[in-house]
Amino acid sequence: MNDHVLRTSLLDLLHVLGEARRGVLLAGGYGLYLKQLHMAQAGHRTLIPVEMWPAPRATQDLDLLLSAEIVADVRFMGAVRAGLDQLGYTVVAGSEYLQFARTVAGAQTIKIDLLTAQLDMLQDIASIKADSRRARPVAEDRAQLHAHPTDGALALDESPLEIEIAGTITNGESSFARVRIPHPFTYLLMKLTAYRDRRNDARKDLGRHHALDVFRIVAMLTEDESNQVRQYIARFTDNTQVRSCVGLVRSDFAHATAPALLAMREHPLWQNDPQMDVFIEVINELLS
Question: For the whole model, what pTM was predicted?
Answer without folding.
Answer: 0.93
